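Q: Got a minute? One more chain.
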Amino acid sequence: MRKIITIIALSILTLVTMTSSDKAFTIYLIGDSTMANKNIEAGRERGWGMALQGFFAEEVFIDNRALNGRSTKTFIDEGHWQKVLDDMKPGDYLVIQFGHNDEKGKIGDKKHTIAGLTFDDNLRMFCRGALGKGATPILMNPVVRREFTARVDREAAQARASKSSDDVPDKRDSEQLKDTHGAYAVTPKYVARELRVPFVDATAITGDLESRLGPDNSKLLHMISADKKSKDNTHYTEYGAHRVAELLVDAMAEACPQLKPYVRHYDYIVSAKGFGNYMTLQAAINNVPIYAKSTICVLDGEWVEPKITSGKKIKYVKFSGVKIE
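A: Always. Here it is, folded:
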């Protein structure tokens, strides 16, 4: 009997060991709603952290602990940081991105921290905690909001003037993006330099993306484009989350060259759970151009064999558990 129990115990241990060895390491994400996982049944909103798994090989596990509405202070006060710290292991990574909520309110408010003081202290705590567990912290400053400076539409002003109208001329967005983060986008860089930890300038990277797209096309990144009633220029659509994650993963690999062998760029990423830029395999296939070689990464789900138009050259990369039949 004792021998049987020993065999069972060893079998369980072997199973656990095999399961653990499937993953090279875990990348933990801590931050606010711009990074967090979203309820896909509620709409198209996605945090950029949701899209990150599709840019890494399967043996890298993305554990997104970012939460809506949190600042560095509330993330600590509510016990979320301690849970992440308890779970981290040597060889893991910790991506830290706060600022959107730290800058809100006034001194003494529940969320508010002071850039250069308490905000920096909390970032130091996260970095030192990760280092103490043998993990690598990657510090980021906040992603930008889609806020362009207003300008007067000169053509509209001239047209109104010619009609002797007293109306106020129409205003349009300029090509100049506003800085809405101030010191909260600056001090993370100095904390990273002080502690000699990797830093990713997410403010500059996303600011450049918004500026290149311009006032009109940049709307597609945000929820303002998903709902006619929405004025949300902060949170991302599935398209926006994908574009931002695509840029930030390369910046992460530049800051931590040891990540480069695990980074992947696929033409299309499918996830029934909302972690890709397509929710269904058929939708991704429908967007593949004819005669172009395309790779579709399927992160999860069981799929009926899709219909493929003649001439489309498609290669599948399937994560474990994915079935296409």
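A: The two ends are 44 Å apart (CA to CA).
Q: Perfect, thanks.
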